[in-house]
Each structure stands twice: as structure tokens, then as C-alpha cells.
Amino acid sequence: MSSKLYDEAVFAVGRYLKNYSGVVFDKRSEQLFNGVFILHEGRHFLGTAAHCLEHIDRAEDFSGLHIMTMRRRFGMSAALPMATTYSLPTDHYDVGVLEFSDDLATSLGASWIDETSASSAEAQIGRHVCSVGTPGTRTSDKEVLGHRVTELQPDFIVSSITERDASRLSDYNSDVDILVEWPDKARDKDGRPTAHCGTFAGMSGSGVFLIPPMHEGRVWSPSETELVGIFTSQYPETRLWKFQRIELLFEAIRIHIQQSPPLR
Prior knowledge:
seven-stranded antiparallel beta sheet; about 260 residues; alpha+beta; 3 helices
């Protein structure tokens, strides 16, 4: 694939994914964590990393929290008056979910991914994946036409799956973790190349998507992009980052549904 064609494909994927990706922040517009919007058995969730949920596991912790999609640079956010969380109870798994009510889900205007569009089966070495998220320093409040809105400046990471240096990482678990090479250039939220990559602090919890391959004689579409995991860690010293398989997240959702009634 030519460089120009690749960039066009990534650009199309970036535009497609924005409405599936969300960010949670506090009343000071400080970003707390990223996530991906999930619909399962009629209930609405933000899939994220478990370590992102460590400080909001009590009802009072939701006071002042807001959530919004990354669809637009400027957006109105929705308050989280009530939500519930669940994370798999093991040190090896770093995935969790934030569930919110149907009313809040409707007000977000987000797009939702169900289990039919989520699988890590094709996340093989050499395949290209992407993740979109907003680092902690990339949100701010602004006044637009008399309304207080939040400005987002997301990072869009695109690179290939690898096994390089896996044995050197003490927290790497081959059963659940997938390593990705550090990209040689950053991209904006639409997938356009920007400056040279620094670090990805604050990207935890973002959805990781498999970019669909291009084949001769077949119509290519960004809608074939598949959710394969959740961004959990970065390793700047070895130029790697990793995600955990999406099947773990749906396991967490199923357990949560068994244990908790829907929010009203």
C-alpha cells in the first residue's frame, strides 16, 4: 500500500472512530480517563482500563464528573449524576466498565459498539491498529456563543502489532496482553499526521481498533474496523505500548450485568 493511500485510509478510520470514543473529566476540565462506548444486552457502558476507575468506585465520587464524545473539537458534555463501575478482580487484568443510564446514553449522541464488532482473533503480528484518546493536558473550557464548552485535542496512534522485547517486560502476560510498536509520527483525531511522537500519558482506557486490510477487487470501508482491545500501558524506554484483549472487557460486562440491575 502506498504511503498516500495508507494515510487516506487512516484518515477515514479516524473520522469513523471519533463518535465511538469518549473521555471523562472533572468539573475543572481535567481529563481523568478515556474509553470506548459499548452496548451489551441493552445496557450502555464505557469500556476503559481498570486502573482508571480506582478512584471513582463510590457513588459520591461521581459528583462533578462529565463525559463527552470525541466527535467534535468543541462539545457540550453530559454530567454523570449516577453510574456504577466493575473491574475484573485480578492483578493480571486491567479492564473495567462504567455503566450509565439510558437517558445519559441518549443525551451523549454517541455511537455504540456491540460484541459482534469486537474480537481480538485477527490481532496478529504485523497488523496495524489504532487508538484515539485525549491525554490529560489536552482539555480546556471555553466560552462559545455564550455556552461553556470543552475543547478536546486528542491523539490518534497508529502502528503495528509486535512481540519485540516481550520477555523484558515484567508485567507482560501473553494470554491477555498484545504489544504494539511506537509510531514514528503522531496523528490528530482525524488521523492526519502531525508532529513526532512523544509519550502517550493519559491514553489509558482508550479503545484499540484493527484497521481493515485492503484487498484487490474488494471495496474497502472504515466500517469494517474492529475493536480488539483496551489501551492499558506504555513503555517509552523500549518504544512499545500494549493493550489487553477485548474479550476480557466483555467478560467484565457479563459479570457486572449478573451482579447489578440496570441504572434508571
